[in-house]
Amino acid sequence: MLTKFETKSNRVKGLTFHPKRPWILASLHSGVIQLWDYRMGTLIDRFDEHEGPVRGVHFHNSQPLFVSGGDDYKIKVWNHKTHRCLFTLLGHLDYIRTVQFHHENPWIVSASDDQTIRIWNWQSRTCISVLTGHNHYVMCASFHPKEDLVVSASLDQTVRVWDIGSLKKKTVSPADDLMRFTQMNSDLFGDDRQVKLWRTNETKAWEVDTLRGHMNNVSSVMFHAKQDIIVSNSEDKSIRVWDATKRTGIQTFRREHDRFWILAVHPEINLLAAGHDNGMIVFKLERERPAFALSGNSLFYTKDRFLRYYDCSTQKDSQVIPIRRPGTPSLNQSPRTLSYSPTENAVLICSDLDGGSYELYIIPKESVGRSDVVQDAKRGTGGSAVFIARNRFAVLEKSTSQVLVKNLKNEVVKKSSLPIPTDAIFYAGTGNLLCRSEDKVVIFDLQQRLVLGELQTPFVRYVVWSNDMESVALLSKHTIIIASKKLVLQCTLHETIRVKSGAWDDNGVFIYTTLNHIKYCLPNGDSGIIRTLDVPIYITKVSGNTIFCLDRDGKNRAITINATEYIFKLALLRKKYDHAMGMIKNSQLCGQAMIAYLQQKGFPEVALHFVEDERVRFNLALESGNISVAVASATEINEKEQWYRLGVEALRQGNAGIVEFAYQKTNNYERLSFLYLITGKLDKLSKLMKIAEVKNNVMGQFHNALYLGDVKERVKILENAGHLPLAYITASVHGLKDVAERLATELGENVPSLPEGKTPSLLMPPSPVMCGGDWPLLRVMKGIFEGGLESAARGGAVDEEEEEDAGGDWGDALDMVDVDGMENRDIDAILEEAERGEDENDEEGGWEELEGLDLPPELDTPKASANARSSVFVTPTQGMPVSHIWSQKSSLAAEQAAAGSFDTAMRLLNRQLGIKNFAPLKSMFIDLLNGSHSYLRAFTSSPVVPLSIERGWSESSSPNVRGPPALVYDFSQQEEKLKSGYKATTSGKLTEALRLFLSILHTIPLVVVESRSEVDEVKELVSIAKEYVVGLKMELKRRQKKDDPVRQQELAAYFTHCNLQLPHLRLALLNAMTVCYKAKNLATAYNFAKRLLETNPLESHARAARQIVQAAERNMTDTTELNYDFRNPFVICGSTYVPIYRGQKDVSCPYCTARFVPSQEGNICGVCDLAVIGADASGLVCSPSQVR
What we know:
With 1188 residues, the protein is an alpha+beta fold.
């Protein structure tokens, strides 16, 4: 049994499948009816108008209706679209057991404990017939699927067949039961625990057979819709499957605690459902996926106990050989996987027979098309079997997690243990296996017995390799993981609906199917729907626009798809813009989703090409900086918000003409005043002041007077506003004596006093650096798409000179539409209109309808850039930033970091040295970037000028050739650090010494030297620093282990085996000798004392060593045993600080070469704290001489 969906609920008494949609209705003992989507696993709706248990429920086969009957004696007809009960049929006098719609007529049949069967017309909502004759509860009644019959079963131990043909004649009530099966204790399914099979003709019925096996009352029984089997379930907590021809039990499925009450069979597809005490299950009896294997254009697959061959190029299908004797009694024995060796023409077929077995067939060359050649296959048991080479295949022994490699004679050639507990193996290239466990997969090389890659995954069902074997898709129930051939994760995709199959197309896009869609997955993880499916299919091959697939009946189908969408997205992803351009021009790419995708991926100018809606066009034009399109769209929309946003964008681009126009359209006087001020258009500013006066906008008038420095106007405004003291002060301070005297007489005694000893000055705004016109725009290259799209829109290619000319800005190719009222209007006209408007009491004052004005020439319709083509100023072409040149020319991590390409630097360090932890390097990256750039101030109003500092620059060098960046770290600094580290070690400042040596290890990846000899010195320095870091870390750890004398001695002993300078080695030996002597380990102390004497130590140290030698010679014993054997050469693990003796396996850090025990593989190195232990790396690159 393959459980597809399971629910937990109250006892399920009734079930019905929807004939088309993936829905199932479950009626519960609690009175609730649940509508579930078994494909998505979600509860769609619940209906709870019945009181008490609902025992019967049924979907109509074409209308959006279902019927239910319950213990409240009511039959209810519901519309599941409107989520409500349409009407209730009343008439039964006791519990209703079953209800069913007729397949053609508008009838419902119901069976009840009132001993009657009723037939209802649901259109007229009346009971059209009552069938009486049973003398006990009627447990079920149902229409015959083709003929005018009803069959019913009752606790009176009879099954009755009723003729209802007369109902169609609409005359008389139906005849009494046509025939009665009155044998005692024998109904179709019954409390006698038997299932009986009957045959009927026109007049009589007879029992054919009895199926025995259930241990309790049989609650439901069904013929399977597709196969020749009978399914029954019972209160004995089991579902049994019977062979309808042989009348024997095939299989039994049991539950621990739940009695079964009801069965339902899907009318169209291979699904069943069973309701029990605590919910229901939707299940299949057998897998429907055909086993297949593809090689080039040849597809081998199994169908109906034959191996078949399909040629994708000619689309010819033929039978090859019969593959197994029929007659296995149990389900799910069909082939599960198929593996094919094209050179030997051999096929391996695996199935679940006998707990997992395989059969090996060699296909005779001439047998394709002749299916009568029966051959005896070579068989064997094993979890799964796959070809791994031309004439070798691997068989998995699950129990021992071993793989047996066999030849075509089925003889074991080699045995190999697998690195993880494996429950299935898949092909992964010649000689390699992909091993699957519950939560991960590994690729295992059978020759070298090495793990080539490992990946944590959900439970993988299918593995699909790309044509070049560079990528692999791992398919789980709801997840697709795409990884490289070494199992490096590239992307993960989650689906809510089950994933069924997949294949790679020629472009490296993974095409896959779920239960109801064909979808695609791009290399970056973007996915989308290609088309919807009516029935599930299994993709075998994707070739161009054709998908070859097998359906559940084992038929080959070729589906043509529209690949435009994903090919276009792939072209954008791979930066093949010319290809994308061609597709835009020639194909019908459209839709909101595509526009949203282009916007999200940073191609608004491309999205602009697809859009008709003006608002969307406006937004996209602003996003891509295309002012001309934005102006045209804003004019079409003509709303305040759009003009405001257009003004903001035009201001950002320095396009003063359009800014002015946008402010005029929105009557935004304050912004307009400020714009005229900063662009130096004082004549327009003075006209704006008059407009403010006409409109009685005192504050606006005063602001404009301030901007203009017009004192008389300010005094006049203050006087008119009634602020006479302020007007007097303004006039006095600015020397307008006659006005001041006139105001003084008006003020009388209230004349304000002026401050003494101050020299007043006129407040004047600064003159703008550049007056009028637009700001100089850089000659920017058109976006890769824009020029092409616009030329396409104009209906032809643009010749090169014209293209060159159009490069002046981003929008000129699309000339702006001339719309009435789009000119920047002369302020005089506005002034006149405002005056007129004042008389007419206009609402706003009339910036809107101005036509036929005599305009000064420079104020014509604003173009997107007024002076892009002017002869006055041509801006130079922008060069490439120096940092770009540096990052293009160099493959040294330090130079990439100095250029600001941190991601490239990190990738280089990862590839060269296996570095993964970049936290210690962050500050150095920033120092390198800051150290290679300086900044010069020009004018106060202009931005600072960045300056790139080059290494080895001289005045004689060519200005056009860029040298490499200056670096703040060099090798001599590291040598100084080394000396300081030695000094700190000698004086016993071990923490400071450790910091210095670690700093050397962290800085060396970012050091650049010139010659090959210096490269060797750098590598030697890494080795020295590594030895000291390991030794000092052990010594510091030893000093913390006060309570563990054995570990103290071991760490002191290991320290003496680090490759140290002689003075430091003496200190380490003296230290180890003292620690061991104090712990009464005289034999070990003797060894250290002898080694110390060989180094010519200080006299005091030598005397102590000689005394220990004499003491040890009298008693050469150790009181405690140490994990230390000085006779056997060893290296020390940099993380666990245990010895790794010669001959033992170890792994090393790809950067600092520290050694570790194998269990540390994959962790960050404990010595340098940068690289991953055991990672693949090409080696340190620190000089241009290594690259050339």
